[in-house]
Design a protein that fits this description.
By secondary structure, this protein is α+β, with helices and mostly antiparallel strands. The chain contains 19 helices and 17 strands. Helix 4 (45-56) packs across helix 5 (67-79), helix 13 crosses helix 15 and helix 17 runs parallel beside helix 18 (518-526). The longest helix is centred in the middle third of the chain and has 21 residues, at 215-235. The N and C termini lie far apart (73 Å).
């Protein structure tokens, strides 16, 4: 029986990690070790561990005994009262790190741009003199000091002709990390077997005296390219993934995004030794960098496991799409999640019908459905939670595209006929002043550049409130966060968050005329990872003749011609505040395109802000049909390649 235990501890190379504790925790192994200790065969834990490493083949890829891992497993089994180990011998020496006698000299003459740094290189720490420099810089200049680092380690010094610019340190990964593990898609057994293929970048220091644009992202790229070979040379196997943590209280993570790292979520504030779940650490963003692009297949995972990239049609088969798009929604009760899946599956065949009609007489299903949607406001049954699985799959579909249009817009849902319905807001009024009650739905739809829908990225339902009669502030004096237009900024920020998880995909925020306000352009300037494309609403002043934006771009040189399909439009009589609309057949509009670069000046109440450089595009139909108004668009955009 012990031979079977022994085989379970054997691995071939380091494709699969030795399961030392699991092997020693098997009943026959516990009995075997207890028997060894009973006859006092070993006088020290180290001697026992060396024997067990040989007996159970606990060797790493370098053919070195995994003594420390074995001793740790033995200690934990002793704590579980399986046996009593020899008395631990006291450690000799000191844990004081080796340092220099003085601080590392500051670099001199460092240029402002990374591309101009002379002799930039990573030097692997392999000698004591280099280790002293590394420790000295980390102890003095890194907020978390020099460590200690755990597990397999690689350290680098960042050198240049200007002097030492900083240092990096790589070590063992986090044992458990919910968002990382969910992104990878592995289960507990797979994590235990392959965790060693993940390396954690535990320290990244650019010295406080160094101010050099794009240096951090360049160093991250250099390290990701250099680390696999150095790690393989030292430990005889190649890692598949690098992870790192970013404390957003101090750093936005922009350099990671620029270096094509992927943000996969955030930590829960627990450190490596947080056995009592005190969560004393700050929460941090989790970034990963796949060294091996096919690491999931090497793990034996399915093509769509974790948060891997999806094609637009993946998982949309009629039999399974509801489970994939809504399954596992965090509604506080697994039964509610299953009910949601069943409801979505039933509604898919007849989305225009009420659920009582879709259920076809299944009153138990109807009652369950209405219990689901009538959940209390404080419950976990929210629009965000219902959409969370769909949002995750939408983002995975987005990751497979080079460019994604994130089209956001709002719609008023009129529930004026539901007199008993609570929680509604005011969505408008008619000419007599009668108030219409309902909700305002604002959503962001992700669409591929060829027009193929990828999913709903974000959606919010709000109950608008009318302006209080006590409100005496001018509109410009009201903070943007208190205005209804702030929802456009909220959705843009959500796109920025999404963009951090898909560094190879360009996101463009597409908005209608309601989003033409300076604060949104200012928001994009602060976080430029998502571009803007907005239909202009205001004929702004410009500094040159003819002094008006629309007139100026109309006289710009013709740059291109495009054919745009114009859909049919049904006639509509005048209703309330809506103007009458004539019938219009579908057609192909032949349009002339002009563009020019302008400076978007801030409004008077933003006098302290600098102008924003932006492109304005003008597209106008050349020869509209008789008695038909020509199509004419004015677009404001930060997208540069669209106007080249």
């Amino acid at each position: 029986m012990l031979d079977a235990v022994r085989v379970s501890g054997h691995t071939c190379g380091m494709n699969v990690q030795n399961q030392i504790k699991r092997t020693l925790s098997q009943p026959d192994a516990i009995k075997y070790v207890a028997g060894l200790l009973k006859v006092n065969k070993f006088v020290s834990r180290r001697e026992l561990a060396d024997f067990l490493c040989e007996r159970f083949n606990f060797y790493d890829a370098r053919k070195q005994a995994q003594r420390e891992g074995c001793i740790k497993a033995l200690r934990e089994l002793e704590s579980a009262c399986h046996y009593t180990l020899p008395i631990a011998r006291g450690k000799t020496g000191t844990n004081t790190p080796k340092r220099l006698q003085e601080a590392v000299a500051d670099p001199t003459g460092v240029p402002d741009k990374a591309g101009e740094v002379c002799g930039l290189e990573l030097i692997q720490v392999s000698r004591e003199a280099q280790m002293r420099i590394w420790n000295e810089m980390m102890i003095r200049e890194h907020p978390r000091g020099h460590g200690p680092l755990v597990g397999r380690q690689i350290r680098y010094l960042i050198n240049s002709e200007h002097g030492w610019l900083g240092a990096l340190g790589f070590a063992a990964p986090a044992l458990k990390l919910a968002e990382r593990d969910r992104w990878i898609g592995w289960d507990v057994e797979q994590r235990r077997a392959y965790l060693h293929t993940v390396v954690n970048m535990s320290r990244f220091l650019i010295r406080p005296s160094v101010h050099c644009a794009n240096l951090a992202s360049r160093l991250l790229s250099m390290a990701a390219k250099r680390l696999p070979d150095d790690f393989e040379e030292r430990y005889k196997y190649r890692p598949w993934l690098i992870e790192s943590f970013v404390d957003r209280a101090y750093f936005p993570g922009t350099c990671y995004q620029a270096a094509n790292w992927i943000r996969v979520g955030c930590t829960k504030g627990r450190g490596r030794q947080d056995r009592f779940r005190q969560a004393a650490e700050t929460t941090k963003d989790i970034y990963v960098y796949p060294i091996e692009k096919d690491f999931r297949s090497k793990l034996g995972l399915a093509v769509d496991a974790g948060r891997s990239i999806l094609d637009p049609a993946d998982g949309l088969e009629s039999e399974t799409w509801a489970e994939k798009e809504f399954g596992g929604a965090p509604l506080g009760d697994a039964r509610l999640s299953k009910r949601l899946v069943k409801a979505a599956d039933a509604k898919a065949d007849e989305p225009w019908r009420a659920f009582c009609g879709v259920a076809q007489g299944d009153w138990a299903a109807v009652k369950g459905y209405y219990r689901l949607i009538d959940a209390p406001d404080e419950s976990a049954v929210t629009m965000a939670n219902i959409l969370r699985p769909h949002r995750e799959r939408t983002m995975r579909r987005m990751q497979g595209q080079k460019t994604v249009l994130c089209i956001q817009d709002g719609s008023d849902l009129n529930y004026n006929s539901l007199a008993e319905c609570e929680g509604l807001g005011e969505i408008g009024s008619n000419q007599t002043g009668a108030i219409s009650r309902g909700l305002h739905l604002h959503s962001t739809l992700a669409v591929a550049s060829n027009g193929l829908p990828l999913g709903v990225l974000h959606a919010q339902c709000i109950a608008p409130e009318s302006r209080s009669p006590k409100e005496d502030r001018y509109r410009y004096a009201i903070p943007i966060e208190e205005k209804k237009t702030f929802i456009w900024i909220e959705h843009h920020r959500d796109m920025v968050t999404a963009a951090s998880e898909m560094p190879h995909t360009r996101l463009i925020d597409v908005c209608d005329r309601e989003a033409d306000f300076f604060e949104l352009f200012e928001e994009q300037r602060r976080t430029p990872s998502v571009d803007l494309l907005i239909r202009a609403n205001y004929n702004r002043k410009v500094i040159e003749e003819p002094f008006k934006l629309f007139e100026a771009v109309r006289t710009a040189p013709v740059q291109s011609r495009v054919c745009v399909p114009i859909p049919r439009q049904s006639a509509r009589p005048k209703q309330s505040k809506q103007e009458a609309r004539s019938k219009r057949p579908s057609r192909i509009a032949d349009m002339t395109v002009r563009y020019m670069r302008i400076q978007l000046s801030p409004p008077s109440y933003f006098a302290g802000k600098s102008p924003i450089d932006i492109w304005v595009i003008h597209a106008v139909e050349d020869n509209p049909p008789p008695n038909t108004e020509a199509v004419e668009w004015f677009l404001l955009t930060t997208v540069c390649y669209a106007v080249h």
